[in-house]
């Protein structure tokens, strides 16, 4: 795969990238052949000599399907094509003419091992007809595995919306040329199964969003000590358990020293330092490298005072949970150091209101607009986490374990990002590293973990990046 294989493209960006290949001497026919044969390699790995049924639509996605079917037939595979309509584009018509295998009527009784959906591609913006939905569901039900080429038919590429409610789920989706936003955005991403990328030679697109991958994290230098590795101040509040979770996570994500500010000493491990003095005194320590405020903070007058004091510390900050609902544009007016904000959907809407954003558009568009309006790095967490920076950088995380839907995991994420900030990593990068580390920790934790169990797996997740 090329070095830019992590880029995520909109429909418009993908069309422009394909046109650039054509302008450079390729052709629609040639690109279809590369895409179709590349997809056929994956189908062959799964099906080999088992029976494959390819559903082809009238456009170029259908043309890809005809190429896939012929490539499988040439290898000796058992393949049949069900055309939902005759090809209408010139490239698809040529691909149809080259196919030498079996063609079945749309109403034929078909049973097999692998169903391949090439009905419509990523440019679809309208719902499928009831006949097409019924055909897709019938073929999916009569095959052991279902595979979508580029995207399942009936999915809107840029938003991840389902254009029809009753679409089948797939076991594997093959992205052609580049990732699309629907590969990582809900609700579509929950229907796609495993994801694989088929390279067709698309060049790097300036300003494209990226898919988060495993970060490269260096071990501490040979002469490192706890302060050089990073001191974090975690600001507690009315509910100290949340701050303890965040501080515990920070300990496992690379920082050298975590100090929790609290009114009293809660039950904590002996290696977590708790300071009960005045917050302003704790945060005047010149060795602080990052501050985290929000988990368990509360929303009363004392919480507002603690947020203001935390933001007065001229070091990078993570703002989470209650602090997001107390944050105002005025508090950021004089601040120079970066802030990472980690809202869930409700907090995202509240921040949009605070910073004058209309909340319209796709999730990536909303998050990017908020980052630009607020000057914050935004981590819009959830089953489809999106990260945006004020300078326009955008990243999306692949789907993580659904077991993360348990109380306290947001606190763990905030502590993990703060830990990466304290090590000296730039804010957007720290956010991405934190999101990836939490997802990897969840994978290692197995099913039905608690937030503290998740935090305990962070050091193993970090080890996977060394």
List the main descriptive attributes of the protein structure presented here.
UDP-N-acetylmuramoyl-L-alanine:D-glutamate ligase; 19 strands; single chain; Rossmann fold; 12-stranded mixed β-sheet; 16 helices
Question: Explain this structure to me?
Answer:
The chain has 466 residues and is α/β, with parallel strands linked by helices. The protein has 2 domains: 7-208, Rossmann fold (3-Layer(aba) Sandwich), CATH 3.40.50; 226-463, Ribokinase (UDP-N-acetylmuramoyl-L-alanine:D-glutamate ligase, 3-Layer(aba) Sandwich), CATH 3.40.1190. The chain contains 16 helices and 19 strands. It has helices spanning 11-23, 28-47, 60-74, 90-98, 130-141, 226-229, 240-252, 279-282, 301-312, 322-326, 345-354, 363-374, 409-422, 427-445, 451-456, 458-463; strands at 7-9, 51-56, 78-83, 102-103, 112-118, 143-149, 172-176, 179-180, 194-198, 209-211, 231-235, 257-261, 273-275, 288-293, 317-319, 339-341, 377-380, 386-388, 394-396. The strands form 2 sheets. It has a 12-stranded mixed β-sheet with strand order 8-1-10-19-18-17-16-15-14-11-12-13, with helices on both faces. Strands 4-3-2-5-6-7-9 form a 7-stranded parallel β-sheet, with helices on both faces. Helix 2 packs across helix 3 and helix 13 packs across helix 14 (427-445). The longest helix has 20 residues, at 28-47. It is elongated, with a radius of gyration of 25 Å. The mean pLDDT is 96.
């Amino acid at each position: 795969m090329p070095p830019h294989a992590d880029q995520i493209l909109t429909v418009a960006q993908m069309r422009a990238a394909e046109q650039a290949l054509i302008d450079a001497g390729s052709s629609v026919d040639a690109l279809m052949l590369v895409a179709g044969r590349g997809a056929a390699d994956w189908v062959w790995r799964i099906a080999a000599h088992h029976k494959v049924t390819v559903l082809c639509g009238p456009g170029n996605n259908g043309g890809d399907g005809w190429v896939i079917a012929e490539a499988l037939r040439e290898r000796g595979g058992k393949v049949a094509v069900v055309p939902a309509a005759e090809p209408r584009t010139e490239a698809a018509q040529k691909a149809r003419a080259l196919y030498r295998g079996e063609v079945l009527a749309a109403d034929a009784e078909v049973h097999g091992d692998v169903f391949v959906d090439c009905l419509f591609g990523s440019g679809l913006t309208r719902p499928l007809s009831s006949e097409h939905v019924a055909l897709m569901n019938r073929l999916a039900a009569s095959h052991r595995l279902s595979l979508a080429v580029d995207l399942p038919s009936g999915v809107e590429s840029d938003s991840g919306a389902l254009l029809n409610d009753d679409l089948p789920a797939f076991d594997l989706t093959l992205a052609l040329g580049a990732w699309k936003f629907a590969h990582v955005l809900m609700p579509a991403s929950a229907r796609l199964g495993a994801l694989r990328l088929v390279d067709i030679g698309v060049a790097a697109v300036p300003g494209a969003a990226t898919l988060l991958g495993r970060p490269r994290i260096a071990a501490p230098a040979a002469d490192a000590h706890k302060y050089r590795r990073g001191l974090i101040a975690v600001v507690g509040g009315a509910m100290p358990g949340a701050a303890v979770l965040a501080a515990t996570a920070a300990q496992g994500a690379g920082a050298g020293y975590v100090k929790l500010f609290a009114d009293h000493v809660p039950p904590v491990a002996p290696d977590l330092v708790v300071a009960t003095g005045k917050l302003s005194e704790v945060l005047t320590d010149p060795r602080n490298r990052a501050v985290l405020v929000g988990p368990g903070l509360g929303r009363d007058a004392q919480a507002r005072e603690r947020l203001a004091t935390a933001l007065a510390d001229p070091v990078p900050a993570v703002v989470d949970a209650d602090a997001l609902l107390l944050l105002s544009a005025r508090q950021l007016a004089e601040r120079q150091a970066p802030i990472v904000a980690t809202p869930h959907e409700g907090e995202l809407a509240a921040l949009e209101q605070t910073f004058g954003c209309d909340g319209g558009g796709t999730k990536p568009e909303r998050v990017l607009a908020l980052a630009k309006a607020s000057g914050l790095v935004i981590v819009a967490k959830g089953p489809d986490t999106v990260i945006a920076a004020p300078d326009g950088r955008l990243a999306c995380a692949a789907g993580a374990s659904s077991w993360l839907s348990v109380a306290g995991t947001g606190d763990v994420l905030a502590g993990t990002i703060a830990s990466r900030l304290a090590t000296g990593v730039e804010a957007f990068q720290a956010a991405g590293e934190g999101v990836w580390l939490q997802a990897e920790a969840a994978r290692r934790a197995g099913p039905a973990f608690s937030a503290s169990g998740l935090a305990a797996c962070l050091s193993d997740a970090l080890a996977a990046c060394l």
